[in-house]
Design goal:
Blueprint: H1 2-20, H2 22-29, E1 62-65, E2 68-75, E3 87-94, H3 99-108, E4 112-118, H4 123-136, H5 140-149, E5 150-156, H6 160-168, H7 179-182, H8 195-204, E6 210-213, E7 218-220, H9 224-233, E8 241-244, E9 247-250, H10 260-268, E10 272-274, H11 277-284, H12 289-292, E11 304-308, E12 321-324, H13 343-351, E13 355-359, E14 364-366, H14 386-402
Parallel strand pairs: 3-4, 3-6, 4-5, 8-13, 9-14
Antiparallel strand pairs: 1-2, 2-5, 6-12, 7-14, 8-12, 9-10, 11-13
Bound molecules: 2-acetamido-2-deoxy-beta-D-glucopyranose (NAG) (6 copies).
Length: 412
C-alpha cells in the first residue's frame, strides 16, 4: 500500500515538477555528455550499505598524526549522538576563529566536531580559550549549546608530552577574566596549517553517519538537521552521492540570512551573491542558480533540487556538502596556505562519478562581507607548496589509480 503510494506520489510530483519548472524538462533533453546536469537512474546495485558503528563513544586519545601531535575529543560534548539521530558539523580553525562558534552552534543546534590547531607557543593560550568558550562565553544559551554539543580536538606541533600537560591543566573557572585575555590572535609565524588533517580528524571523530565538513565561518541555514533527516528518511540511500548546500556571501551591512526566504530577499536586493562571485565564480556557483532562487522559498520541506556531476561547466566546482563518513578523505600532505587543498578529493569524487544532489532550501552563508579580491594566503617561508607537490607527485598517483581518461580536472 505504502509502496504503491510512493510510486504514485513520486509520479505525481514529477508531473507537477515538469509543469511548474520547464527548466527541469530541459535537462531531460540535453545530450548526457554536454551537460553537467542529468537525472540519474536508480539502480539496485547502487544501494547504500553503510555500516552504522553501534558505538557512540569515541575514546579520547593523544597520539602522533603525520608531523603533528593530536588529542582527539579532549573536551567532549555532553550529549552522545547515534548514527542516524543527527548530522555532525565537522570543522576546524585556530583559536582566533573560535568566536564564529557562537553563531554556528545557535544555528546548528546539534553535534559539532571541531579540530583546533595551535602552534606550540600558542598551545596553553588555545586550551584556555576553548575552556573560556565552554564555561564563560557571552550568554548561558551559547555556553550550554557548546558544552552539550561540541567536541574539541587539538592539533599542534608541540611534543606529545607538552600536549598532555596542556590539556590536563585545570579549566578556567574564573570567568571574570575578560574575554580579551583569551581572545588569541593568529600565530603569524605558522608555516604549515594542517588543514586536511584537521578536516579528516573532525570527520573521523563524528559519531553520526552523515557529516557536513565546512569552514567555521560558513553558517548553515536554520533548521537544517531536522529537514535533512526528514529528506533522508523518505529516500532510498544510494552510494556515491552527496548533498550540496549552495554557498553565499552577503554585504557586511546586513545580517547573515537564516532561512531561504531571507536569502532570496537579499539576493533580489543584490545584497547577497554566490560565494566568491568576484573571485572565482565557477568554484562555487551551482547550475541554474536563478531557478534555485525561485523554489521552496517559504518551504520547510527539504527536497533535492537537481542532480549534478562535477563535469562540464562544473569541472572547477568545490562544493560543500553533507556526506557519509566514508567518502574519499582529504590529502593530508596539503596545507592551507598552498591553496587547492580540496582539489584532490574533488577529483576523486568526479572520477568515481558521484552525484551531487543540490538541496532545495538549505544553504551556507559566509560571515558577512563580500570579497572582491583573492585573499592573500601566502605566508613568508611557507613550507606547503601544494602546486609543486601536486604536479610532482599527487597527480601521478591519481592518474595511476583512476586512469588518465576520467575527464576530471586536477586544478592547481
Ligand atoms: C557525446 O559523446 C559522443 C561519444 O563520446 C560524441 O561522439 C559526441 O560528439 C558527444 N556529444 C557532445 C555534444 O559532446
Ligand atoms: C613532515 O615534514 C617533512 C619536512 O617538512 C616533510 O618532508 C614530510 O613530508 C612531512 N610528513 C608528512 C606526513 O606530512
Ligand atoms: C544539542 O543538540 C541536540 C540535537 O540536535 C538539540 O536537540 C539540542 O537542542 C542541542 N542543544 C542542547 C543545549 O542540548
Ligand atoms: C611550532 O611552530 C611554531 C610556529 O611556526 C614555531 O614558532 C615553533 O618553534 C614550532 N615548534 C616546534 C616544537 O616545532
Ligand atoms: C610554488 O611552486 C610554483 C611552481 O610550481 C612556483 O611558481 C611558486 O613560486 C612556488 N611558491 C612558493 C611559495 O615557493
Ligand atoms: C594514458 O594512459 C595510456 C596507458 O596507460 C597511455 O598509453 C597514454 O599515452 C596516456 N595518455 C596521456 C594523454 O597521458
Amino acid at each position: 500500500m505504502i509502496a504503491k503510494c510512493k510510486w504514485f506520489c513520486g509520479f505525481l510530483a514529477l508531473v507537477m515538477l515538469l509543469v511548474c519548472f520547464p527548466s527541469v524538462l530541459r535537462t531531460f533533453q540535453v545530450p548526457e555528455n554536454s551537460s553537467s546536469i542529468s537525472i540519474v537512474k536508480d539502480t539496485n546495485d547502487n544501494v547504500d550499505q553503510f555500516d552504522c558503528d553501534p558505538s557512540i563513544i569515541r575514546e579520547s586519545l593523544v597520539k602522533l598524526r603525520g608531523n603533528f601531535s593530536l588529542s582527539t575529543g579532549f573536551r567532549k560534548a555532553e550529549k552522545k549522538f547515534r548514527c542516524v539521530e543527527s548530522v555532525t558539523f565537522c570543522t576546524h580553525g585556530d583559536a582566533s576563529y573560535l568566536e564564529n562558534l557562537a553563531v554556528l552552534v545557535m544555528r546548528w543546534r546539534g553535534p559539532v566536531s571541531l579540530s583546533v590547531f595551535a602552534s606550540q607557543p600558542f598551545l596553553k593560550k588555545t586550551v584556555s580559550a576553548i575552556d573560556w568558550w565552554r564555561n564563560c562565553a557571552a550568554t548561558e544559551e551559547i555556553r550550554n549549546e557548546i558544552r552539550a554539543n561540541v567536541t574539541f580536538h587539538l592539533i599542534t606541533n608541540a611534543s606529545l608530552d607538552e600536549l598532555r600537560s596542556a590539556i590536563e591543566e585545570k579549566a578556567i573557572n574564573d570567568c571574570l577574566i575578560n574575554s580579551e585575555a583569551v581572545a588569541v590572535k593568529k600565530d603569524e609565524t605558522v608555516t604549515f596549517y594542517p588543514i586536511n588533517i584537521a578536516r579528516n580528524v573532525a570527520t573521523e571523530e563524528a559519531t553520526t553517519k552523515y557529516i557536513l565538513n565546512a569552514d567555521i565561518e560558513l553558517f548553515p541555514s536554520v533548521g537544517f538537521i531536522r529537514q535533512f533527516l526528514n529528506l533522508i528518511s523518505h529516500r532510498r540511500n544510494r552510494r556515491h552521492e552527496v548533498f550540496v548546500l549552495p554557498i553565499f556571501e552577503v554585504a557586511a551591512s546586513v545580517p547573515a540570512p537564516s532561512v531561504k526566504k531571507e536569502l532570496i530577499d537579499l539576493y533580489l536586493r543584490r545584497k547577497a551573491v554566490s560565494f566568491h562571485k568576484f573571485i572565482c565564480e565557477w568554484c562555487h556557483r551551482i547550475p541554474e542558480l536563478d531557478v534555485w532562487m525561485l523554489v521552496s522559498g517559504a518551504s520547510a520541506v527539504m527536497e533535492v533540487f537537481s542532480v549534478v556531476k562535477r563535469r562540464g561547466s562544473q569541472r572547477f566546482w568545490e562544493p560543500i556538502y553533507v556526506a557519509t563518513r566514508r567518502e574519499p578523505v582529504y590529502d593530508e600532505r596539503l596545507g592551507w596556505s598552498g591553496g587547492s587543498d580540496k582539489m584532490m578529493q574533488m577529483f576523486e569524487l568526479c572520477a568515481e562519478d558521484y552525484n551531487f544532489n543540490i538541496l532545495s532550501n538549505a544553504f551556507l552563508v559566509h560571515k558577512p562581507g563580500i570579497k572582491r579580491r583573492m585573499p592573500d594566503k601566502r605566508i613568508a617561508g611557507a613550507s606547503d607548496n601544494n602546486s609543486i607537490l601536486v604536479k610532482a607527485l599527487i597527480r601521478e598517483e591519481l592518474l595511476r589509480k583512476y586512469g588518465n581518461d576520467t575527464g576530471c580536472e586536477i586544478v592547481v
